[in-house]
What does this fold into?
Amino acid sequence: PPASPAPTSAPNSSPAPSQSFRTAKRSSQDYIFGKLIGDGCYSTVFLAKDIHIGKEYAIKVCEKHHIIRKKKREYIKREKDALNMLSSVPHGFVKLFCTFQDEERLYFVLSYAKNGELLKHINNVGSFELNVAKFYAAELLLALEKMHAKGIIHRDLKPENILLDENMHLQIADFGTAKIMDPEEIRCAPSSGENDTQNERSRKISFVGTPQYVSPELLHDCVDTRASDLWAFGCIIYQMISGLPPFRAATEFLTFQKILKMDYEFPEGFPADAKDLVEKLLVLDHSKRIGADDKGTTYDSIRNHPFFLGIDWDHVWDQTPPTICPYL
Ligand SMILES: C[C@@H](Nc1nc2c(c3cc(-c4cn[nH]c4)ccc13)C(=O)N=C/C2=C\CC1CC1)C(C)(C)C
It folds into this structure.
């Protein structure tokens, strides 16, 4: 953990807008830094405890010189903006409570997702029972709807940055790769391939997600749309049920090849409804993916798919998540 430098002048901090009371300016002195819980490209996430209230947080620490040298200021700013835009959403995302800085570092104080990465839970049991996969797919879809309705495309969704809180509810993390669409681009439709504005579709992008989950349009045409997150959604449903992502190979290049050739198959016994939904999400043409044409701020065509039969969409977050247990 970073040595807590004695603050020379009160480091500037900006309390998150959601705080209902004024707090004194925070600094690294207000926290006891614990174990390292995650390592991103340009940041490290530590478990930390607020010495005044004893509450645990995840604090993302970014070295300023590293960000400047790697020209990543835009990524950091975009992540803070996305987290602030989502801090008013009650469920589905890690919360940003406040930020502060000192001479060398930027600090983001965030909610601590006590049960860690979804990937760890999939690997612990091999693969999820259908009811567990359905539940987390439903929570993930609700989070995608909220994110997309605010014009935020995550672009790197994967089981490593989908976390589980202390009550085992889902929280999406790591918005450093997110794209925030300009206000005039945000339509009510959460995702609409053919109606996407020219800039949303054709904007040159400088970033490609994690090989196993990256969408073909991001690879082939350098295009990112909300539907790119729907592709990753399909990969994650496949992986929760089978234990592995659909596109995997010895190298990144071979993985990309498989994606562009749609070279994947379903293991024996993969449930038919789940297979049908995954096949409707893993479509090369992003405008033809299920949900891409949905209007309003919900993916009704996905919600109404038989895979989600029995999900009460208004009470998913109130439910006690089903126990993740190894296959008998
Ligand atoms: C995805 C991220 N990993 C993680 N990011 C966050 C965690 C987190 C917690 C555990 C964990 C908890 N218990 N055991 C493990 C493992 C990985 C975590 C958390 O609690 N709260 C906020 C986080 C992130 C906030 C987001 C703005 C960056 C990477 C790999 C990028 C470091």
Remarks:
- DSSP finds ten helices and eleven strands in the chain.
- The radius of gyration is 20 Å.
- Residues 11 and 102 are 6 Å apart (CA to CA).
- The pocket of MP6 is lined by residues 37-40, 45, 58, 60, 79, 94, 108, 110-114, 116-117, 160-161, 163, 173-174 (CB under 6 Å).
